[in-house]
Write a structure and sequence with these properties.
The structure is a homodimer of 455-residue chains. By secondary structure, chain A is an alpha/beta fold. Chain A folds into 2 domains: 280 residues, 3-Layer(aba) Sandwich (Aminopeptidase); 154 residues, Glucose Oxidase, domain 1 (3-Layer(bba) Sandwich). The first copy, chain A, is built from 15 helices and 15 strands. In chain A, strands 1-9-11-10-12-15-13-14 form an 8-stranded mixed sheet, with helices on both faces. In chain A, strand 10, helix 9 and strand 11 form a beta-alpha-beta unit. In chain A, helix 2 runs antiparallel to helix 15. Chain A starts with a helix and ends with a helix. The interface between A and B is medium-sized, with 34 and 34 residues.
Chain lengths: 455, 455
């Protein structure tokens, strides 16, 4: 009987579709608008090629904000504005260097990128010997051997996980917590193997932990070919290196999230948020991370207007500031919403790349999850077949927590994401137009269904 | 009641997983072997970069056959051999040209590629005016206006279809039947808009109908930018062109399919076939079409050996000759199997690119379809969530028909396939290692399940 009951529940998606004829038609209209008249790809070309990198505090950030506001208006927002927030201003600060200083490979250079929010060595650099550490357990075993040395975390991105975010979740701890952990035992610098499957040797940057109570030492990433090379050298001989990064913080500066709004026709006070983040790392065009989410967000707005859909609730389209190294935009958005006593009901994010969609991650009650899963038959023709328990991305976290509301995130196919993530290779050319569009159309459909049926 | 019955059937996949614990473990072993120790990507690099294009009759074909036989042995085949078949020997025959000869755009050149199996103009070329035709209905309306002209089929690849093979199925008729249809009304040449969404302007070749009873005129493809340009010109002014292709057939020559075998432990006389095609068009490396299928086929063999799996049935791994412009390898394989009175039970193909897998297409009875669909929960962790009614690809068609057995094909995500299909851009760099591997592992799992449970 239990099995039969379970069966009835899992069959609901199949049965409810017959009641959703209108929904199929509207979602088809959304799909056709995006696939035939889509602007997301052209917008992404402009953002990546005309503006490019846009780390918080950079001139690219300012240009991106202005472009975002203009594009939000062109996309048909009823209202649009900039939401100010103070953002950290971390800079790479010029030439970085990692060079062998002893033995047969003397003067051999490795390609490096300082980790975001890391501290630098100053212009003189340091010279020290390298110790390879395979894991945090390995660090504990070697805690008496790292003093005065540069710790090389060579934790490999695990190929056994099918969804690469699981490999990332495991490996990123060495980037995020590794420097502080090594500093505790007296290390003078850190080298981290990049979190990627890609053998193209680009170093992948990304935030490392920072803050007043966290011990700081210079830290940088190297690509996989260099990591394997260094590992190989260290099997044979001690390796000393000249190690230099000029990374440092400037004072916090003013940044902005860009917000557009379609005002609700029935419950204008109830707000649905959809967004991506406008900032990117300094090394790349930020095409997948998160140019894709940015242009998808505005494409949903453009499309709902284009097909003449009048949302019942107010829909906010947000290009968040400073996701990469501070999350100040997401925090400010929630803070201001609370201060204004707004009523928020749902938030959706796209920050996993412009790849072909597979599903959504959803954080809500079991009943709410069941409800959104009942919509899968409507999305499956467009490539979405699973809505898994999870949550939204980083930017919608604060608003979700502040209001205790469900948040969700688009889950595209993950195989290529970490090939480009936080590296120079995250460029427009690596985004496929239709994959980007299919993400936008599934998000638009999801927003439409939440607007129509609630949660 | 009917709905409940339907419900019970659709729930079977959920229920049967509990009986398949061993299967999960074996499929996980397959997955780990491929993702950690995989050779498919390196093999593909060799095939595309060291051998490259390998159209039937070319020197590349001969090199590919030798490489295939060696790699089949290295992958662990119990037996391996070449299966001879006569193959067509069509050649492009040197420089192709399409150039405007009148008006303000005189001498403007378009990038062209003669269609496979097409006839040429000879070295002197032809000069004629161009008439644009939007569809076969349009051709009928204009049948009195095409005599002596070059017909430009400008049928657009439909962006509304989510699965791009549907756009292809519709548009490819103009490449395949268009030249013969235009010849019937006295056209002297054909230009076809390429079947792609990609705006990179590469012309996409591919077979056009040929045979003694089919009227033949020279025919070539142009890329999308050139097609839009030509359309634009024709709105404004008559366009005359110089049109030259040297395409022609040489006498049929000897080609080979490459076959490897794992001999069955319980029913060695019952044969399961898995394969892809070894030939490619002359313009490209044939990385997705069908280098991917070739290396996936041998990866399944290598993996089953590596994990120590002893198949009950004999499994044949086949790199088919001449899929692109003749299908002689597939036909010969079936013919010889019949002549030898072999017993075949199932055939699986990969010929839709090395992209992230989404499902399988399966041609069999409703009961057989239901049975293979009950395996979906075992494959879903690896990205396969649908097994749709359909059939195998072109190469396994003949053996499926000859023996009346089910055939299946891997269905990868289709968004990028026609960006590269039959064009110069179908190169190794456009294949992602893990997407290729995920295809191989789902195919290996499918073969394992058919071997274990039958159909």
């Amino acid at each position: 009987m239990k099995k039969l009951f379970f069966c009835l529940l899992t069959c609901l998606p199949v049965l409810t579709i017959f009641a959703q004829g209108d929904d199929s038609v509207i979602i088809k209209a959304i799909a056709n608008e995006i696939l035939v008249n889509g602007k997301a790809y052209d917008n992404l070309r402009y953002l990546t090629k005309q503006i490019g990198a846009r780390l918080s505090g950079s001139s690219g950030m300012v240009k991106a904000e202005q472009w975002g506001l203009n594009t939000m208006k062109q996309s048909g927002a009823d209202k649009s504005w900039l939401q100010e927030c103070m953002v950290p201003h971390w800079v790479r600060g010029g030439k970085e260097e990692l060079k062998v200083t002893n033995g047969a490979e003397k003067n051999h250079q490795l390609a490096v990128a300082a980790l975001g929010n890391s501290t630098g060595t100053g212009p003189k650099g340091i010279t020290a010997s390298v110790i390879e550490i395979k894991s945090f357990e390995d660090l504990e075993k070697n805690k008496d051997n790292v003093k005065g040395k540069i710790v090389f975390y060579n934790y490999k991105f695990n190929p056994r996980f099918i969804k690469t975010f699981e490999s990332y979740g495991e490996a990123v701890m060495y980037r995020y917590m590794g420097p502080a952990a090594a500093a505790k035992y007296g290390a003078v610098g850190v080298i981290v193997r990049s979190m990627t499957h890609s053998m193209d040797n680009y170093p992948h940057t990304g935030s490392t932990a920072s803050g007043d109570t966290i011990p700081k030492i210079p830290s940088m990433a190297i690509g996989l070919r260099d990591a394997d090379w260094l590992d190989d050298q260290l099997q044979k001989t001690p390796v000393n290196v000249f190690y230099k990064t000029n990374a440092h913080f400037l004072p916090d500066t003013i940044g902005h999230s860009v917000i557009g709004e379609l005002t609700g026709s029935e419950s204008p006070d109830e707000i649905i948020t959809v967004g991506g983040h406008l900032d990117s790392w300094d090394l790349a065009e930020g095409a997948h991370d998160d140019g894709a989410g940015v242009v998808q967000t505005m494409e949903i707005l453009r499309t709902l207007k284009a097909i003449g859909y009048k949302p019942k609730h107010t829909i906010r389209f947000v290009l968040f500031a400073n996701e990469e190294n501070g999350l100040r935009g997401g925090a400010k958005y929630a803070e201001e919403a609370k201060a204004k006593n707004e009523k928020h009901i749902f938030a959706l994010e796209s920050d996993a790349g412009g790849f072909t969609p597979r599903g959504f991650s959803f954080g809500g009650s079991p009943e709410q999850l069941k409800k959104v899963q009942s919509w899968i038959p409507l999305l499956q023709p467009y490539g979405v077949y699973e809505i898994e328990k999870g949550g939204g991305g980083a930017d919608v976290g604060p608003v979700s927590q502040a209001f205790g509301i469900p948040a969700a995130e688009l889950i595209p196919d993950t195989q290529r994401y970490f090939d480009y993530h936080h590296a120079r290779s995250d460029v427009f050319e690596n985004v496929n137009k239709r994959e980007l569009e299919l993400g936008a159309l599934n998000m638009a459909a999801f927003i439409y269904l939440v607007d129509k049926y609630g949660l």
